[in-house]
Amino acid sequence: xxxxxxxxxxxxxxxxxxxxxxxxxxxxxxxxxxxxxxxxxxxxxxxxxxxxxxxxxxxxxxxxxxxxxxxxxxxxxxxxxxxxxxxxxxxxxxxxxxxxxxxxxxxxxxxxxxxxxxxxxxxxxxxxxxxxxxxxxxxxxxxxxxxxxxxxxxxxxxxxxxxxxxxxxxxxxxxxxxxxxxxxxxxxxxxxxxxxxxxxxxxxxxxxxxxxxxxxxxxxxxxxxxxxxxxxxxxxxxxxxxxxxxxxxxxxxxxxxxxxxxxxxxxxxxxxxxxxxxxxxxxxxxxxxxxxxxxxxxxxxxxxxxxxxxxxxxxxxxxxxxxxxxxxxxxxxxxx
Length: 336
Description:
By secondary structure, this protein is an alpha/beta fold. Helix content is 28%, strand content 17%.
């Protein structure tokens, strides 16, 4: 096959179709969450971060290898000037069907009109507690009111909205019902995510999502599987009578979903990661900044590296055995 042609042969060595790319646009954040970016960390130089033009080049090349859906992450992506504009530019690339964003919500109200204009397809908002004092302990700043207002405005905008809650034993497991009920009167999803043992996340004990599900079933006897499509990832959804939204569970630790993995990650410094669990990755930035290459030559090399990455993607992660995890970087350096 001539590699200048568009292809849908984007299957890895396990036969999984890889059509989803999570792109970190910055390692900066305006919060200091205890499990991600506590105080005292060292950030990258701006020159180490991929430019928007470089990100576009990567997406344009990868779209010809079957990437169809993108998630813009950070750090906190909205702290990077021009993030909504980037979303619009990425959506304009032939072959890209969906671009969504994950955010802590602090800047969301301010940026929501720009995001809607750019055509963002979905917004995931991180929220681990509804208690103001606890929020400040977890996130480092008292911004809960702004985030809750942003959630309501995002739902009202008509953009698909989801809440992501990282569940930590002894910290927010007492708020499971209250957080789940955010989906009762709002047409959005609330997802409970088992804490993955990456970076500072290793310092926290995650709750088993199966236990959370059983607790919620006891509260809401009508809670039953929701088979409708909700997005790109591995969440399993349930819906209860009287709820406008659904409740989801992402159980990376207790229930592996590697057999259906459809993603890779591009870090803000230009490393294409095959799996969150392992340090392995391909240096994409070196191709983008190699002198003497035309844009078409760079594109061919990027496409070649993507196909090589498909073969390198491991069969499964090993979060259940921390001793086998080779990735030692913090999540904000990898991309949420």
